[in-house]
Amino acid sequence: MTEEFQDSDRKDWDTYFMDIAYMVSTRSRCPRRHVGTVLVQGKKLLGTAYNGAPMGVADCSEDGCMIVEELEMTQVGDTERMVKKQRCIRTIHAEQNLLLFTDRIDREGSTVYVTDQPCWTCANMLANSGVREIVYHRAYAKDSDKVISLMRLKGIVFRNLAHYEPPAQAGMNVIS
Q: Which one of 3, 69, 95, 165 is the catalytic residue?
C-alpha cells in the first residue's frame, strides 16, 4: 500500500529558496558571517552566490579579516550620536557576487533570496539591478533603517522571513 503525498509535507517556495540560499552560504570561508543568495524568476532558479575573497586571492580563513572602522552619525531618539562600525573589506558580499555573475535581463522583475539583510552598499546595488523583491532571514541592524527606507523609496518589496528555520547543516555562529 502506498501513502499519498500530502501537500502539507511540501515546503513553500520561500522556504525552498531560502534553504538553497543557506546551503550556498556553506561555501563561504568567512569566519565572521556566511552569506548566501539566490536569484529567482518566477519559480526558476537563475543564479547563486556567496560571500568571499575574489577568485584566486587568499580569503579571510587563510590571511585573516581586513577590518576597517567607519564612523557614522546616527539619530537615536532626539539625540545624534557617533557609532563605530567594523567591516571586512577583503570579502566580496554575496549580493555583489550575484550581480557580477548574472545578467541584467534575468534580474528584471526577479526575486533575490539572501540569508542576511543586505548592507547599505549591497542594497544600493540591488536597488539599481532590476529586482522587484528581496527576501531575507537574518537582520543586519547596522544599516537596517536606511536599507528599509531605500527599498520603500524604490518600490522594491522587502520581506523578512523572521520565523524561518535554516537547515541544520547550514548553521554557524554570526559575529556582529
A: 95
The tens-digit pLDDT sequence of the chain (176 residues) is 445 556 677 999 999 999 999 999 999 988 888 999 999 999 999 999 999 999 999 888 888 888 888 887 777 788 888 878 777 888 899 999 999 999 999 999 999 999 999 999 999 999 999 999 999 999 988 889 999 999 999 999 999 999 999 998 887 666 65
- Decide if 98 is inside a domain: yes
**Which residues, other chains included, contact 13 with Cβ-Cβ below 8 Å and sequence gap of 6+?**
43
Domain span at 131: 12-51+92-162
- For residue 52, give every residue at least 6 positions away whose Cβ sits within 8 Å of its Cβ, in sequence order, or none: 27, 28, 29, 30, 59, 91, 92, 97
Tell me if 93 is assigned to a ligand binding site: yes
62 as an active site residue: the answer is: no
In angstroms and rounded to an integer, the radius of gyration of the C-alpha atoms of the chain is 17
Q: What is the pTM of this model?
A: 0.86
Tell whether 139 is covered by a domain: yes
What CATH number is given to the structural domain containing 110? 3.40.140.10
Is 119 one of the annotated binding-site residues?
Answer: yes
Task: Examine residue 28 and state whether it is found in any structural domain, yes or no.
Answer: yes
